[in-house]
Amino acid sequence: MKKAFRGVAHHLDPVVSVSDRGLSDGIIAETERALMDHELIKVKVDALQKSDRLAITTALAKQTQATVIQNIGKVAVLYRKNQRANPKLSNVSRFLG
What is the domain extent for residue 25? Predict the structure, then answer.
């Protein structure tokens, strides 16, 4: 399933951007909203060190109960299933459904 999600995510643009200052309540709230609407999202993390980017991505996924599908450079792909997803908004429903 991760391979299919990576294929869908390839065409997506990041909907959440995390600055080098790290996570904030606003970023977590925006990620929650994006996951609720789209289920599969890209997040851009602007930390300089790879270890910092991975730590931020892992922390964001943990706080939003999402799964990290992929990390490439400064972009991460997160997924969280929504039982009542809007088929017009959900990236998973639109591209895999």
Answer: 2-96
